Amino acid sequence: MTEKKIRLIARLDVKDENLVKGIQMEGLRKLGDPNRFAREYYEQGIDELLYLDTVASLYNRNNLSEIVRRTVQEVYIPVCVGGGLRSVEDVRLALSTGADKVAINTAAIHRPELITEVASAFGSQCMVLSIQAKRSRTHAGSWEAYYDNGRAHSGLDVVEWARRGEALGAGEILLTSVDSDGLMNGMDLDLIRAVRQAVQLPLICCGGVGCGDDIVDAAQAGADAVACASVLHYGRESVPELKDEIRSGGVEVRR
Questions:
Q1: Closest CA relative to residue 173, chosen from 248, 98, 97, 115
Q2: Could you read off the pLDDT of 116-146 as tens digits, one per residue?
Q3: Alpha-carbon distance 54 to 23, whole Å?
Q4: CATH superfamily of 5-253
């Protein structure tokens, strides 16, 4: 049996020029300069960075160009950028600032063929389908995909949408549990398992990490990568501490 491996990603939500963090994507608190946090996590040994412009969809633009440009001058790991990307041109601009891949949610829900267009133009490894999942109140054991930072209903079933995204050419899925976001009390393992059973794509899971054991649980449920925010931003654990706990739980992670 091959040993389970996981990638550890720092998720950096940005509003204007500040790193912010909320709970269930609400009540965003300003935490400081995102570049400082990115550099610190890089020095601690994080595997990747995920930058998300939290208000981009509201203003029809991605505001991260300068932040990403500064980051890639001092950080030499993959960087993914999301928020407000609506066209192949928007993606080209994001990549030109130094991003390696892009995460698209709102625009893909409104026009799913954008997934195929981005994958065709830049390669499927560049096209990450971002899915913000909330448990359905009406159908037990199912989740609805949301957009506009977890505020707007899409009416799409998360598992079906993940399956469709894979068929359209996405190379990876960023799966965020809005219900668990910022609570630091464990990830939605049922959600991870449900999407894992539906798709072959690498799965980046996000929402609820409070310690290394939560990441081990996610890996065993089918996550290929886990994106952390609050646990790192608030100093509850450092990257090396998380990685030590992950290894202790029997999951391999980059040294």
A1: 115
A2: 999 999 999 999 999 999 999 888 889 999 9
A3: 13
A4: Aldolase class I (3.20.20.70)
